[in-house]
User: Fold these one by one.
Assistant:
Number 1:
Amino acid sequence: MALILHLRTARELWWQSHLQKLLPEIECRLWREPGNPDDIEYAVVWRPPEGGLQQFRNLKCIVSVGAGVDHVLADSQLPEGVPVIRTTGTDLTQRMREYVCLHVLRLHRGLDRQWQAQCAADWQPDITPLASQRRVGVMGLGKLGADAAASLASLGFDVAGWARSSHHIDRIDCFHGDAQLADFLARTDILVCLLPLTAQTDSLMDREFFSLLPKGASIINAGRGEHLVEQDLLDALETEHLASATLDVFRTEPLPKEHPFWAHPKVLVTPHVGSMIDPETGGREIARNLLDFIANRPVADVIDRQRGY
Ligand code: GLV
């Protein structure tokens, strides 16, 4: 019984040794040294190469090293009928909570303005509104989104959420579906995108979408780069309809050196670090899900391949 691991190369050995300790009965092999492909029953992957998983005829399940599964489902030759398990868990939720609260607070308290003032040795004591006067909107109310929304509410923000289907979360005004999107956007000063990437959410943040946000709103995208139409964002910043964008995810990663986002004065670029999984805590989640799967116990993180998350 063997498992194949595909990750960004720099991290593969670190992951391999952790997973091997957690799963002593399963031989953990690297993608570049698969041995006999027929031994492989489990694949633990981040952005597997197109068509690559097909060579493993005895594959029983595919684990995404991350909460998103779009990078697995994007493979047009993905073996049919093989369950796909995502990885969530407390470390991913905690890291995303930190990222979202950090940047919402940064925008709320005008930290970028203060930094610029400091560069000019300019003492500018602005009084910012209270959090309860700042309307934050979180798109995507799965584990990460619901947790981020609740954390923002506990900091005192006026928080609403939006998702494809209806949700009920304490202290969060929940909107859902296309019909309620405009009302959700109209009441949002800081928009946080934590949606899964699906055919319905691809390019959702476009010109028309931005026009529904109040003038001066800011966006934080920690979902996927494909949620955003980049030129439409640049235009909305140029016309000052939007005040700023904080972007952790991009259509092309790493973000190409010549990309206009890098040097844009109203864009903060972070290199897809919003919620990175690590082999110690993430490895434990993966091992637990795999052992449950092997023992035929229910695994909550098996995704619906049809729905896309
Ligand atoms: C990160 O992007 C993830 O999907 O967990």
Number 2:
Amino acid sequence: MSAPKKLFVKTYGCQMNVYDSERMAGALGAAGYEETQDQAEADMILLNTCHIREKAAEKVYSELGRLRPLKDANPDLKIGVAGCVAQAEGEEIMRRQPLVDLVVGPQAYHRLPAMEAKVRNGEKALDTDFPEEDKFDHLPRGPKMRRAPAAFLTVQEGCDKFCAFCVVPYTRGAEVSRPAERLLAEARDLVERGVVEITLLGQNVNAYHGDGPDGVWSLARLVRELAQIDGLERIRYTTSHPNDMTDDLIAAHGEEAKLMPYLHLPVQAGSDAVLKGMNRKHTAEEYLRLIERIRAARPDIAMSGDFIVGFPGESDADFEATLELCREVRYASAFSFKYSPRPGTPAAGRDFVSDDVASERLARLQALLTEHQRDFQQAQVGRTLPVLIEKPGREPGQMVGKSPYLHAVHLDAPDSIGRVLDVEIVASNPNSLAGRLRS
Ligand code: 5AD
Ligand code: SF4
């Protein structure tokens, strides 16, 4: 048998790409590849890319430029671009950067082994189709290795919402849900490998509507069934659209102890005029009332969100409305971005706010969100939280775990990886909490 070839995968963007990268490595594993963390020894480098904002897309081209010396040193090195830039730009990538051998869109990953064979023959390979078959059915999982305690599981891909700023409906296509029984089987397999926390992923995960044995399952049903799996202790899901928060899903937050009290529910803006321009299909008030209902079902739930500032037409008053909404919700954590026009999206042609104004708004919004985030973190001090111990810390015996609210928690707890322990939070540091085991 020949020595395994080496694969180096670099992942950009969202958690769905993290999951996809794992599955691509599995598919190429079946074609004789072993993963490496050192790109200098790689026979194949795959960049799994993100197209959500201009900066993310441009990063790919600068990274490709940096790979030139490696390709000069090893002419057999093959370079591939996967993910949303691959989908959006296709052949253009090979034109702009001739050292790229392979371009594969997110729906065609199961065809990677055949594409790899082609590039080994010295040809170029491009596939940005949206095939009918479920790519995950055809992507091998790799050997039954022990896994880290927390894993991602993609349950749904694509989006039919068409927010006016967003490329996702174009790069990932229409909403497709994976069949429920396959997801349950995959979840059981993860648990057998040592996983205790699963985050269900989808661009619009709460729109999940997969075929089940007795009809179509909603996300709430899927969560309830997953919660029956012994050994699976925590369930999360992301990312959700407010309009798909059904009564059943809200109720599940109150009833399923395994469902973590943390919800990423982006609103993007706090002004109705901007929400309308964004085609979000709900008002600020409707969003706030929704959060009230979620909090009524699960009083200790923490909210997280995404915001865009400088969207075309955003006035000072509109921006103030965003700040006001944040003051009302008090997010435990939030991401905020300057609007970035994306080719082919409805908002791309509109006049946008000047970069100076957008930068100033972003700084103000981030200052407010950071203050709320710090307050929330500080409020954990003195509480006892169930913490999932995930990996060793820097000092011997020290561990790093995860709170229900996704905080990193540092503590002394030898030999405890994969366990959920009661931890008293003793301090709040800039990016983490410190805790000690409750005896
Ligand atoms: N410009 C800026 N931010 C964007 N997002 C999506 N598209 C754009 C864009 N064109 C943000 C949204 C989304 C998050 C994943 O990225 O806030 O929720
Ligand atoms: Fe993009 Fe999310 Fe809107 Fe879908 S719901 S178009 S993924 S921002």
Number 3:
Amino acid sequence: MDTSKRFEKGNGGCPSIQCEANREVLCNSCAQGVVTAAHRVQDRSIEPCLFGKGGTCCRNCNMGPCQIIEGVDSMMGVCGADAATVAARNFARIVAGGAAAHMDHGRGVALAFLATAKGETPYEIKDEEKLRQTALRLGIDAGEKSKTDLAIEVGERMLSEFGQQEGVLTFVKRAPKPRQELWEKLGVAPRGIDREVVEMMHRTHMGVDQHYEHILQQAARCALADGWGASMIATELSDIMFGTPVPIRSRVNIGVLKKEEVNVTVHGHEPVLAEALAMAANDPDIVSECRKVGAKGVNLAGVCCTGNEILMRRGLPIAGSFVQQEVVLATGAVEAMVVDVQCIMQGVSPVSSNYHTALFTTSDKAKITGATHIPFEEHNAMDVAKDILRRAIAKFPERGKHFIPAHEMDVVAGFSHETINYILGGRFRASYKPLNDNIVNGRIRGVAAIVGCDNYRVMDEVHVELAKELIANNVLVLVTGCAATGMGRSGLLSPEAMDMAGDGLREVLEAVGCPPVLHMGSCVDNSRLLIATTEMVHTGGLGHDIYELPVVGCAPQWMSEKAVSIGQYFVSSGTYVVFGPSFPTTGSKVVTDFCFKEMGELYGGSWDVAQGANEFANKMIDKIDEKRKALGLDKKKERVLFDMAMRRELGSGIPGMGCSPGGH
Ligand code: SF4
Ligand code: MSK
């Protein structure tokens, strides 16, 4: 039994949940009769199947499904497959599913980039400096080439990586040299983006690859094609096209919805549609059409990673993370929800039908029963964006009983790896040297990435509790995805939160004036963390490869297959990664031991599992200390142990705190 708890029954239709904002909305009479994931999770009477949970249920052919028990001969698959083979195959297919999502996202960005370079979209090449740096990395001679010519060449080169069959993906060559050599030696250097997913699906088909280590080797290659391939392409090209993020202030939580404005929420992942909506929302015609129906304008607010994309680059507010997507609609104050791909619960359709809210699907890859489909692609971006906004404006007069909770929190986001470089090193000597120096001198103990989803199967806000414990122990925290939104709701993305940091970390933060938790972007932006760790290696003083750095990662409330692909590319890059509250191979001790131990011997990075903030913090800090010791930096630091009273005290120290500590 893990520590994830189910919601206790609330009163009537009001689920008993911790987050103030969510609870106030769902318990308000305007949400009467609305059913959300919060209700569904508490109403499910059957516990998750142990075979499914532990990765030992196989339905890869029609002799099954077969439920396998490791070590029990009578409980092998009909074909003779053992638990290790089945658990490895299932794990590998999770990685392939997650990687494929990032790969299709990356392809979409590359296509939009190329069309933009050719002048066929309303977007522009905003960051020419990054374009020129990227061209250099790709071995393109920028010379006297115009911005347009260079962008076309870069776009074509990036797009070709998706169909590449041989060789090694270009951005893999950004990794530290010893890491590249290791990948070559182990046979996991990714050859082409699409190829690695197709091969993964082939190898896990019935009767193909039946050695768990060999299957997991391809899972590593597939994940590397995500992190050092598609996700990095998505991030870099989005930065060049829409601007590389710099620190920016904004607000987070459901209270960012506005009573007097047409509320349009953008949900999903790809930045292309959201950027068009952001441009269209400021169009004078659209503003005047809003006025005609009695609204002051359009209030564009993000949900999930689309929210992170427009927060990082435009400072637009985020209304909610993954677990809040239906709750945002249950306010009755949203005129339209516009979705593209990934992490969109089907439940948004029935919830929106309780209100005047229009639900629009826009991707040719994703339709939802009950939603209106308006196909979007970059060439007609502004026409579609304006059409959507006009339909939303028409809904404003139909808004009925609604309730917007008074919960929103100030955040500072926009910490791209370039920004961190600049903030730490200064205008004239942008460098990671100050970060490395402060790690060496012990003011900063190490760096921890908290990434990934939130999840209704985990009652506690583990992200937030964990981050507090890490920063109190002088660990600098980097966040992405919905974990970042949770941090934002709790005030940890504001510079005032530096008061919660340990003495050494606080001293550094005060000098540069940034929060102790740095928001680095959306799910694909985890590629920024790969570059940041590589820069730390190149800067010197902390070893010659990523595995030597006192850097760890975790996803305490993972939900999506993408999180597993991200975790695997960090492990294969040399980082210790802890997932929770469960790990998907535990039905096979053989495979789990391989992930938790042998991968460490192969890659220098390994998986682990934990439940609850304390266990996560203990494991992560122990690993950081182990790395410091190996580097000869092991002057023992006193460990701050947390109890609930200390957490409460820290939580109450944040001015204007909107969500209770521990709440969503
Ligand atoms: Fe069962 Fe083997 Fe078919 Fe899987 S592949 S369903 S273990 S018979
Ligand atoms: S949106 S993958 S719930 S982080 Fe990227 Fe959030 Fe996880 Fe989706």
Number 4:
Amino acid sequence: MEVVITSGAQESARLAADAVEQLLARKPDAVLGLATGSTPLPTYDELVRRHEAGQVSFARARGFTLDEYIGLPADHPQRYRNVIDRELVGRVDFASDAVTGPDGLAEDLQAAAEAYERAIAAAGGVDLQILGIGTNGHIAFNEPGSSLASRTRVQPLAPQTRTDNARFFEDDVEAVPRLCFTQGLGTIMEARHLVLIATGEGKAAAVQQLVEGPVSARWPATVMQHHPHATVLLDEAAASRLELADYYREAYAAKPEWQGI
Ligand code: PGA
């Protein structure tokens, strides 16, 4: 796992956008894994900026979102399908239907979860997965206790997650759905490059476990320690509890620039 301590959210966004731009330059029909939440927004803004400058095209790319609330009405602004359209897909040149997410309104939820797994596999798997991390160490909505081998499934949201996400629902925790679809940890681990971004002191405990803790379902993101190409982009606050922060800084400073992340 490569840990990069950046000067802040903007530098993290630039590095993540560099990785996406370089991927699309060498593989225009790449498959992107798109996180929602607040953390990736500066990255999406940076990609939109580069798209408008003619530097990057998504015309042949495809995308899969990580997770979805179950039961939100189709036009609800916090439905992740709508969030990703608003924040990225509708602002660049993805082909229509090139980006999909699990169907939170499916009648048969189990069948929808299995269909989502098949769709990712049929697309050839995810080349680059953008990730955030929950304060409780979840990635996607894989809450503590999730099997490290889990696949796309229906999950209850942890109380911590519902509290954390109430800010998207006018601070009304009761308005936050109780059930979600999430790609499993096993699903996410099949993506060829994982790029996790964390900003702010609120993520420091989860980041400490992710980078330096034992691999455990208690902190689901720790499964990333088993991934052959995982990059963690942190601001100073998110990195503030890392025991080996100085070492990560030195290692990154010594890295040849051509290697990218
Ligand atoms: P955030 O959410 O980016 O809104 O902090 C991250 C997450 O819960 O995975």
